[in-house]
Amino acid sequence: MDYQIMLTELLKGLLVSVEIFVLTLVFSLPLGLIIALGRMSGNCIIRNIFRVYISIMRGTPLMLQLLVCFFGPYYIFNVHLSSEYRFIAVILAFSLNYAAYFAEIYRGGIESIAVGQYEAARVLGYSQGQTFFKIIMPQVVKRIIPAITNEVITLVKDTSLAFSLSVLEMFTIAKQISSAHTTMIPFVVAGVFYYIFNFVVAFGMGRLEKRLNYYR
Amino acid sequence: MMLKHIFALLFCGLLLLTGSGCSESGPDNKFTVGFDADFPPYGYVENGEYKGLDLDLAREVARRNGWEIELKPINWDAKDMELNSGSIDCIWNGFTMNGREDAYEWSEPYAYNRQVVMTKKDSGINSLSDLAGKIVAVQTDTPVQKALIAGGSREDLGRSFKQLVVSPNYNNAVMELEAGSVDAVAMDIGVAELKQRGREDFIILSEPVIFEEYGIGFRKGNVALRDTVQKTLKEMVADGTAAAISGKYFNGENVITLQP
Amino acid sequence: MPEKVLTINKLSKSFGALPVLKEISLEVEKGEVVGIIGPSGSGKSTLLRCATMLETMDSGTLTYGDLTVCLEGCYADKPVLRAARNRFGLVFQNFNLFPHYSVLKNITDAPLCVQKRDRDEVMQLAHSLLAKMGLSGRENAYPCQLSGGQQQRVSIVRALMMKPEILFFDEPTSALDPELTGEILKVIRQLAEEDMTMVIVTHEINFAHDVADRIIFMADGLIVEEGLAHDLVNAPSNDRTRAFLSNIMK
């Protein structure tokens, strides 16, 4: 087996994994906040819609959601699928799924902020928007970073599920090389790559956590 | 080299932990067959039961030797680990020998097979040359995939495609064909015929992509078990049992080519 | 006739079936300092929260000068409420400073971003008020780096920065260690000397007696007794007031 080729192939796969990772975060972090706000809405219909959404996304396997996102348009609406939709479906399913988890983390964070903070802001005349984005959210972010880090690290490892829609990411490529050459080395290398990837992510989140450590 | 050593250490550790040594003799009275449960008509699930040509053959071999049979569906990607770690005794599941000649202790080939292309009737694809510029799906780690990629025996054909999509299993590939995200699926003739049953909109191209031989793969060095199984299988061919089992899955056709 | 900063007329409030305020009426004139005392559960904090619009009242009227916030249980439109919020400040028992903002940002953010006042004017006022409160040099500290007394002084500055016509205090020393209450009481006394209009809910009878012009004694959601500070503390006419005072003086 040519190690040069193996490494090139695995790095190509790593790039796909990183792409899925970054795009998922870009979409799911803001979406999660919207879902969290919907989940805490004063309107009981809206609140229940989001409650059900979160319950379904957390209660069914991500792999199933991937299949539904990709094949759903054809089997439900008879839409002819293009092969380019494959990657879009992966990002869609990952974003919808992770947004549900992030939403619950946001909700926990928002509900943990003392009511006195809202009252102080109200007495000082801050609008609801100002109160949320200037006073509440910065404190929420600090509190939820450890929980977010957990999810983000899980996401790195979950990228391998993209193969259920035939998107070749690093782990699948490792499996293929491994079975073609009857060797375990690609798995070891892939494992090392995943670890480095996660180490970088954990390091970045740790730095962010430290930067927010200037207050209580 | 460094990696090889690290891996060897890791693997030894794993073996110690699981306590599964590599016994080179045949099973005392248990015969564990590893197979991909997504591979009809050789091995699949129907009404909660494992069925298929290979599994019925394996059951009969076990019965004649007085072994207790265990049918173990495996993750196809992990088949080597399953076999080497001793958690299965053999891989018996439409298992292509071509290209893997040195990786296993093989039985004699017991059936021939061909890999064909299935497409939609209205796709305008009538021969392999029509596949130029099309999107074709294959299952991961199958002989036909190996043949179509760089270095394979049908590399030229593979290069003419617009894209080769690697699906996790046959079912996904056929769903993609149905949904239109791929134009054709290259796969095993047995599976193709089964998938085409009752589907007037699918056609199978008569021109095969590759021919191949099916064998039973045992752990390297496990000659004793290989010989016992092969001897029993030959007896089954001689007395007509094998042909009867084949007929059950291939509309009366005998696909068994092994000679007694 | 003296100018009335705050007028409350027949304010009632219940939590579910439990009435906590029963037709309370109260007027505060410009420059006046009013102390509110009473046992816990008497409704004095709820009265303050209704006056500062943190709780909605069920019935009655609430007026800040010429702005009617609530007329017989009916609240005015949002612009009126916003204008009324500009007229008062509130100092909380638990300070409620914003932990992620420095002292300077805590006290200048609302004047700059809510009131949209001139930056130089706001900064100048901030530095002079901090100096007056003995907090010079702590501009860049975060609340968690300050003592409770310092935090409460910052929160008083924060309220004063909004240039309120009336300042409410909700038990401003209750969350502090006894040795730190002195510095807060000193600051409030200083504000009283500058003719700041204030309503102070407190447990510190001696302080109320010292700084307030008028004291109100509340119990069971009612104003039981009301009078000049000196008279009410030294010669209460009501039995309940007397019992409460003698209990607390012990």
Descriptive terms for the model:
A: 216 residues, mainly alpha, 8 helices, flat, B: 260 residues, D-Maltodextrin-Binding Protein, domain 2, 2 domains, three-stranded antiparallel sheet, 9 helices, 13 strands
In short:
Chain A is 81% helix and 0% strand.
Describe how the helices and strands are arranged.
The complex is a heterotrimer of chains A (216), B (260) and C (250).
Chain A: H1 3-39, H2 44-59, H3 62-77, H4 85-111, H5 115-123, H6 128-158, H7 170-181, H8 185-211
Chain B: H1 2-18, E1 30-35, E2 38-39, E3 43-46, E4 49-51, H2 53-65, E5 68-73, H3 79-84, E6 90-96, E7 105-106, E8 111-120, E9 135-139, H4 143-148, H5 155-160, E10 163-167, H6 170-179, E11 184-188, H7 189-196, E12 202-204, E13 210-218, H8 223-238, H9 241-249
Parallel strand pairs in B: 1-5, 1-6, 9-10, 9-11
Antiparallel strand pairs in B: 2-3, 3-4, 6-13, 7-13, 8-11, 8-12, 8-13
Chain C: E1 4-15, E2 18-29, E3 33-37, H1 44-51, E4 59-64, E5 67-71, E6 74-75, H2 78-85, E7 88-91, H3 103-113, H4 119-132, H5 148-161, E8 166-170, H6 178-193, E9 197-201, H7 205-211, E10 214-219, E11 222-228, H8 229-234, H9 239-249
Parallel strand pairs in C: 3-9, 3-10, 7-8, 8-9
Antiparallel strand pairs in C: 1-2, 1-4, 4-5, 5-6, 10-11
Helix pairs in contact in C: 3-4, 3-5, 4-5, 5-6
